[in-house]
Amino acid sequence: MPGLLLVTLAGCMPPRQPPPPEAGFTPPTEWREPGSNMADVSATWWQAFGDAQLTALVEAALAHNTEVLSAASRVEQAREQIQLSRAALLPSLDAALGAQRTRELSVLGMTHTTAVQPSLQVSYEVDLWGRLRRLKEAAQLEYRATEAERDAVRLAVASTTARAYVSLLSLDRQLYVTRETVDSRREALRVAEDRAALGYTSQLELTQAQSEYEAAAELLPQLQQAIREQENALRLLTGRFPGDVERGAGLLAIEPPPVPGVLPSELLRRRPDIQQAELLLAASSLNLQAQRDRFLPQVQLSASLGRLFVNSLDYDPVRVWDLGASVLAPIFDAGRLEAGVNIAVAQRNQAAFAYRAAALDAFREVENSLSAVSNLRQQLVRVAARRAVLERSLTYAEDRYRAGYSSYLETLDAQRNLFNTELAAVQLRESRLNALISLYQALGGGWQAEP
């Protein structure tokens, strides 16, 4: 009869449901933007940029950033969750103390009874079907997932700090170029004023020179404010109050490191966020099986041992004990167990789609970063050639203006074009360095999943 009941209950269990086929994917065999002589990715990849201050800022952020510290606290929380699930596999021992005072009327008259019963109670759930073991394994996987999440946060903070520092150096360089331009236009304005005073040039050319000078000077406070805000952002990333940020040798001194890269098939093991999604998927599958196990009977063992002290008749303490076992088999719960399984199935499916989404996003980020590094390198070559041409053009325009062959407008156009090109060259260099940093981040920053 018990065997028949077990078979009947097992037959009531919902059927196993595999992950949805839409969650599956096949990694590409090669990148759309293949790299040549791709370098390995080191765990301390930021050192490849050769700036000691950049290294110091990243290491400070990894040690003091609030997001990193919060992620580490979540790891500790998950570790304690493992202890909770492990404790469910072991017996629980409790101390109990019962006391009772009664007053009643009997044939002997009014009697008062005081009873005190200290005891030890043991209870244990027999894990016949492995439900508790699965919950423990799920907690272990979730703990490893929080470790991967912590590593993903560290990688994101390191990358954000590195990009913020490069942007700060870019603003410094733009401020330097703008100041040089302001000085040059101030000198040109002085010459225009002298020529206008002698009648060698018109008031229109003088006002044009004044306008170009003011346009360049207007950028100075804008850049200074941007630098102040960027410094404060960097200080926040490193867990400090607003203040000055020490610089290294400057933007032009940073030599772009070799382009890093890995095979597409290796990317899934090099990204902590993908590892986190994979571990959460495995944990959700175990939780789903544990929910299905609730359809099977649960066996509970219990025991207690104690002594009973009664003072009404001056009895000696009496040793009392109890042994028991119970089998709890679900018969009717208004669909509660089935709903729990369906919820677990939905959570497992969400985890499967989250894993696929993380993988797709990882390949997108790598492709975009590889393409950006390549195209920005070509843009830098072109802008350098254009800058050389514009320098010669400005020289020709100034010579023609001094010789009286052209108006001052040609010189102003040449100055304006050269200034804009110099700023564009600085911004392109910043973008290329940031694209390399983004590529390091997209490749997992040297992180490797545990075998």
TrEMBL record:
Residues 206-240 form a coiled coil. InterPro entries: MdtP/NodT-like (IPR010131), OMP_efflux (IPR003423), PLipase_C_Pinositol-sp_Y (IPR001711). Residues 12-36 are annotated as: Disordered. It is found in: Cell outer membrane. Residues 310-355 form the PI-PLC Y-box domain. It is a lipid-anchor. Its main location: membrane. Keywords: Cell outer membrane, Coiled coil, Lipoprotein, Membrane, Palmitate, Transmembrane, Transmembrane beta strand. NCBIfam families: outer_NodT. This is Efflux transporter outer membrane subunit. It comes from Stutzerimonas zhaodongensis. The lineage of its organism: Bacteria, Pseudomonadati, Pseudomonadota, Gammaproteobacteria, Pseudomonadales.
